[in-house]
Design a protein that fits this description.
- The chain is α+β, with helices and mostly antiparallel strands and about 210 residues long.
- The chain folds into 2 domains: about 150 residues, no CATH class; about 35 residues, no CATH class.
- About 50% of the residues lie in helices and about 15% in strands.
- It is built from 6 helices and 7 strands, in the order H-E-H-H-E-E-E-E-E-E-H-H-H.
- The strands form 2 sheets. The protein has a 4-stranded antiparallel beta sheet with strand order 1-2-3-4. The protein has a 3-stranded antiparallel beta sheet with strand order 5-6-7.
- The protein is elongated and about 70 Å long.
Length: about 210
């Protein structure tokens, strides 16, 4: 999800990270408003046929409902993700909260930090555990706390080899997005044209 947050931050929500006295790293309020506004807009569009029956062809009403309900579900997921995601920083550990996952308590003893062009990445035994974007509020907080703790306790983390080609993050979205691109038009064709014609029309997209 960090590739998405970076894209949103650089294109849609140009801003500088804010720092305050809190011990929490989180997404800015402005980011949370964006998907909420999206939900409201698509709910209004979804309800339009009730008040304006001529707004849509009655033969396409099922596809219309399916399409916009799907979009609302996606926007709802992003809203929940942005509201729940946070890192609470303490002297010797941090608490990491994410949507649909159990909160993690992670000690600083074995964490390796890497400064990337888009923010910080944190690893334990060369396994990525967390990324923090420069666009998030208090983004420096965790990096400073870990460095201070490891310095006081004279902990030296062996740097792993980083110049190894690795899979591009976010590739999971490609098959998922392709499936949605194929699935939604195909359902609409099935409803309007019938199962047989819809199947053959959808073949070039697969």
């Amino acid at each position: 999800m960090n590739w998405l947050s970076g894209l949103l931050g650089s294109i849609l929500v140009r801003r500088k990270s804010k720092s305050n006295e809190s011990n929490i790293i989180e997404y800015p309020t402005s980011w949370r408003i964006v998907p909420i506004l999206g939900i409201l807009v698509f709910v209004i569009i979804l309800l339009l046929p009730i008040f304006l029956p001529e707004f849509i062809n009655q033969d396409s009403v099922f596809f219309f409902i399916f399409f916009f309900v799907s979009i609302i579900i996606v926007f709802t997921y992003f809203t929940v993700y942005l509201f729940i995601w946070k890192v609470e920083v303490f002297d010797s550990y941090f608490l990491f909260s994410r949507a649909f996952r159990k909160q993690q308590k992670i000690a600083y003893d074995n964490i390796e930090m890497r400064d990337m062009s888009s923010g910080y990445r944190f690893y334990i035994d060369n396994k990525h555990i967390l990324s923090i974007s420069f666009y998030q509020d208090n983004y420096r907080l965790l990096d400073k706390a870990i460095r201070s703790y490891q310095k006081i306790n004279k902990i030296k983390i062996k740097k792993e080899i980083t110049n190894i080609l690795k899979p591009i993050q976010g590739l999971w979205f490609l098959p998922f997005g392709s499936l949605i691109i194929v699935f939604i038009p195909t359902i609409g064709i099935y409803l309007d044209e019938g199962l047989s014609k819809g199947f053959y029309i959808s073949l070039p997209f697969i």
